[in-house]
Amino acid sequence: MTRSxxxxxxxxxxxxxxxxxxxxSFAEVAGREVKKVPTLRGRTVINLFYESSTRTASSFxxxxxxxxxxxxxxxxxxxxxxxGESLKDTIQTLSAYxxxxxxxxxxxxxxxxLVARWSAAAVVNAGDGKRExxxxxLLDVYTLRRRLGSLDGLKVWIVGDVLHxxxxxxxxxxxxxxxxxxxxxxxxxxIPREVESLGCRVRHSLDDLxxxxxxxxxxxxxxxxxxxxxxxxxxxxxxxxxxxxxxxxRQLLMHPGPVNRGVELSAEVIDSPQALIIxxxxxxxxxxxxxxxxxxxxxxxxxxxxxxxxxxxxEPQPA
Length: 319
Ligand code: NCD
Fold this sequence. Notes:
By secondary structure, this protein is α/β, with parallel strands linked by helices. The protein has helices at residues 13-30, 55-66, 87-95, 111-118, 134-148, 166-177, 233-240, 267-270, 277-298, 307-313; strands spanning 44-49, 70-75, 101-106, 122-128, 155-159, 181-185, 201-203, 214-217, 252-254. It has two domains: 8-132 and 281-314, Rossmann fold, CATH 3.40.50; 134-279, 3-Layer(aba) Sandwich (Rossmann fold). The strands form two sheets. The chain has a five-stranded parallel beta sheet, with helices on one face. Residues 300-319 have low confidence and may be disordered. The structure holds N-carbamoyl-L-aspartate. Residues 55-56, 127, 133, 136, 166-167, 219, 256-257 line the site of N-carbamoyl-L-aspartate. N-carbamoyl-L-aspartate binds at residues 55-56, 127, 133, 136, 166-167, 219, 256-257.
């Protein structure tokens, strides 16, 4: 059966460490002038995005190109989805091109799992509604590990709209797997019931934020809200915004982007040296290269080509 990456739940700590180790080997490629290896030459990657995306879509595209895959990017706007084609028909159509991987983002929880049933391709979940966003969690763990080394015993607070956040769900699982103590924090209306079963604590105020080593702020997911979950954004910001007085110099700050400046984060903390927001974006490329590699070339005992061998075998790149 083709392997897919649908949820962090499918990965053990060893699986995560294998993928992160691979990403580290690709970081060396990212430092070269010709940032390309031939690993996926002749394989087709389809990026199918039914929801807005800047970082995830562009970094999957760059990742596929750096692995020399043939890449097709389909956005819902401008595709036959606009004409009423169903997800199943779209997948059957795209599967006729015999892709090795389909990367899918959808507003519907469970969409990636359905695609995995309908297609022989490996499927990567690039965000399914409010359920999961496993590659975001992997790149976050990667970024933090690069900065701090081991994550065992690290106290991570995930603050904001946990209820509607696929990033929160995947990150509670991923940070937990890596040995962190995870706390989710937000107003009661924005914390899912029984979230503790994922392996985290719940707090409804920032009173104990000082204990956190890492603060991971979330965007208010307006697009997934019907009705009002907070009295007003101003009141939300007054109670939960991370700003300079709430961030101690020893704490690191993360955010998956896009940031709503002045809501979940104040401008000065976004631009502070404690913020890992841009390193997170950078990590997206090598981690997504590692995920594609792991699914397509990592199994079956095939080792990664030596970095130098890759350099000589690399295709010439147009300037
Ligand atoms: C996140 C997403 O789309 O789930 N963004 C991302 O992938 N970097 C978070 C968000 O939209 O708030």
